[in-house]
Amino acid sequence: MSYLDRIRQCNQYDLERCIPFYIEDEQLGWTEKSFLKHLEIHDDVFNISDQKLSFHESLDTVEARSDAIQPVLWALHQQGVIDTWVDELYPIVKAFEEKPRLLIERASTHYFGVKSFGVHINGLVDKDGETHIWIAKRALDKPFWPGMLDQVVAGGQPFGISLIDNVVKECQEEADIPLEIARKAELTAELHYCSQGSRGINPDTLYVYDLWLPEDFVPRNTDGEVESFELWSLHQLRERTENTAVFKDNCNLVNIDLLIRLGMIDEKHKDYGQIKNELYAQALVF
Question: A Pfam family in this protein (predicted)?
Fold first, then answer.
């Protein structure tokens, strides 16, 4: 594997398997055709044609659409079609910080191929004059990517909370980082990718933060989502990212961005230009 392999692993999808998902007159996502059979009986909620999936014309407000879709999604979860449930509302938008067109259960976003957003925090430490980074090992009972490596803190961006407030919340929940330290996190990158898996299409945007932690600080998980933490050198991070498959897929994108910004991947690397072009590519346009 290579850095380019890591990036391309997060950008594999086939839109031929999907139809556009519309809200009113705008496309907001891509829904796999195989998922439509689960929606057909709900003809008071959805209109389905060969060209697109949309809402019934009577559902002409955010509130009406959100109220109508929630019991459908819950029923599909009870049937095992939607394989997990977070019980967290996610805003469906065309661009970040727009007014939501719909609020749906976070675990269902991939099934409709709508844009999702998250924060990933690099926990950095200046130790003996060199930069080190805290790495989290995901809990073994996590439904997705159990036991894989991750940033010290990461999480989806829920409805009704700012990016920095979400960073602070996740820092406290996942690594017991005090509020006064977490608020010093700095937004350093915005990464886009689009993947496709068993649940559908995932056009995702990661907001990457750098957070410098005190040398004597040791993260401690408080929500059960992390098995353990390790402090690595940047040389360890570079070697493991390029040569192993120990990280959750999208965490590799965050690692590569950090390694570029800190000069650990530079012009001397044979793929440097292509790595930057693909890593910082624009988001999938609907």
Answer: DUF4743
